[in-house]
Design goal:
By secondary structure, the protein is mostly helical. It has a domain at about 20-70. About 65% of the residues lie in helices and about 0% in strands. It is built from three helices and no strands.
């Protein structure tokens, strides 16, 4: 059995351009969400906000569950 990993060494599979692109898309979706919510488009605003939060979490933590499931690792890019 392997020893537990400290948080700083947790599995990372998002890096390089992929991480930057996710951060940029998170900001863009946040802007769309704010604009949609101001116009009363609650469904569009909520979906955009959820997408923004998801992409921002991926960019900050450098981990994506879908990448892990598909065996994709972009940390070396």
């Amino acid at each position: 059995m392997s020893p537990p990993r400290p948080w700083s060494m947790a599995l990372k599979n998002v890096g390089g351009r992929d991480r930057t692109l996710r951060a940029i898309l998170a900001v863009a979706l946040a802007v769309v969400a704010i604009g949609a919510l101001r116009k009363g488009r609650r469904r569009r605003g909520t979906l955009a906000a959820i997408g923004a939060v998801g992409l921002a979490i991926n960019a900050v933590t450098c981990f994506c569950g879908l990448n892990a499931a598909l065996g994709i690792d972009t940390t070396e890019e």
